[in-house]
Amino acid sequence: MSTGRSFSTRIQEGADPGLYTKAFVKIANDPYHPSSNPGGIVGLGVAENLLMGEELVDLSRRAMTSNLSTQDLSYGDDLWGSKRLHRALAGFLNEWFEPYEEVQPEHIITSAGLSCSIDQLTYTLFNPSEGILILRPYYAGFNRDFCKRNGVKLVGVTHPPSTPSFQRRPQAEEQPKGEDEEEQGEDREVRGIVLCNPHNPTGRVVPRSIVLGYCDFAQRHDLQLISDEIYAQSVFSSSESSMHEIRGSKFTSALNLDVEKETGRPFNRSRLHVLYGMSKDFGANGFRIGVLINQDNQEFIRLMAGMSIFSKISAPADVIFSALLSSEYLSTYLLISRERLRVAHDLVETWFSVRGCTVYRCDAGPFLWVDMGDRLGITTWEEEAQWHTRLFEEGKVYISLGATYKSERPGYFRITFAVPESTLLEGLGRMEKILGLRISSRSTHEP
Ligand SMILES: Cc1ncc(COP(=O)(O)O)c(C=O)c1O
Question: Hey, what's the signal peptide range on this chain (predicted)?
C-alpha cells in the first residue's frame, strides 16, 4: 500500500555522505587484523587517533569504578552537560589553550560530539539561505555538519595552486563570493567564516598572524567566526621539544588573542565561537563529546542550551572525561600521544617522499596530505577516483579522496597514520603494490 510520499524533502536535500558511508560500513564489517583477519580492509581514511587505546580504556575503567554515582542515572545537574564536566573543561582550556580571558564553565556548551555542536550552532546562528566562507581544501564532514539539516552553503575559497594554504590572509577578502562551480550564480548572503586550526586535511597549524587576520576580517565584514580547534593538543612538530614550547609558540587558539590590542581596531568577541572536542586529541571518537566556547554572548549560550537535550553527553562519557581532564596524568597522556603521533607521522612522511610523492608539511593531527598527482599521472577527477577505487577494491586499503575535501586539483589523498604500526605497514605495503609506488631518486617535500 502506498503512503504517498515516503520521506521529507529536507532529508533528500543537502550533502550525500554516499561514498564515505558505504566504505565505512565495509571497513567496520571486515577490519584488518594481523592474526585474526589478515585479509581484511586496512582503514587509513578515518580521522582518528588509535595510538592511545590501551591507556584510555584503563583510565576509563578506573574512572567508572571510582566516580560513577546514582546522580549519573538521572538527567544530572544541568541539561547541557554536568557542572562537574564543565568545571573540568574550563580548567583544561585555561591551562592548555592559554585564553587571554579566563574561560568559565558558563561559557561552555557541550554536546554528543563536535558534529552535533556544529549542527546546533548553525541552526542557532544562520538562516538556510545564508553562506559561510571556508578555505579549500576543507574537512569533508563540514558539508554534513553545517549544511545537511540547516540549508546553509559552505562557500569554498581557494589559494593559488602550489602556494601553501596558510601563507596568506583569507582569500575571502579577495573573492567574497567563492569560486566553486556550484556556487557560481548563487546570490547568498555570506554571514560566517570557518577557520580550522590545526587544519583538516593538511595537518597544518595556522600561524598566529593569520588567526588574527581571520578575527579582523570577521569584524570588518560583520561575520560570525567559527574556529574549529579539535586537533589543538595533537601538535607534534619535531622541532619543538618541550610541551611548554609547543603550547606557547606553535598553536594559537583564537581564545588567546586580544584582538583589539593587537590590531588597534575594535573586535566584538560575541561573534567568536571556538570549537573543541575529545574525539581527536584523546583518541575518543566513540565517546561523543563536543565542546563549544563563547565568552561574550550569553544569549547565544542560552539559545544553544535550549536545544541541548537533543544531544546531551551520556553520563559514562561525562564521568570518564571529568576524571581524565582533572587528573594529574593528563599532561603525560597528551605528551605520550604526541610522541606516538610524531613517530608514526615521520614513518609515513618518509615513506611517501622517497617514492616521489609530494608530502605536505604537517604539524598536527592523525593524518597527512599527500599529492600523488604527478607520481601517478593523475590529471582528472575521474582518474583520481579510479585509483581510489582500485586501492579499495583490489588492495583493500581505504584512504581519503582529495575531491571530497574540494582540493584545488586532482591527485591529493589524505592518509591516516595514527593506527597500530602493523596495520600501517600492511596498508603501505598494499599501496606500494597497487599504485606501483617504488622508491625513486626524487624525494619531494612541500615547503
Ligand atoms: C575538523 C573537524 N571538526 C569536527 C569533527 C567532528 O568530530 P566529532 O567526532 O566530535 O563529531 C571532525 C572529525 O573528523 C573534524 O576533523
Answer: none
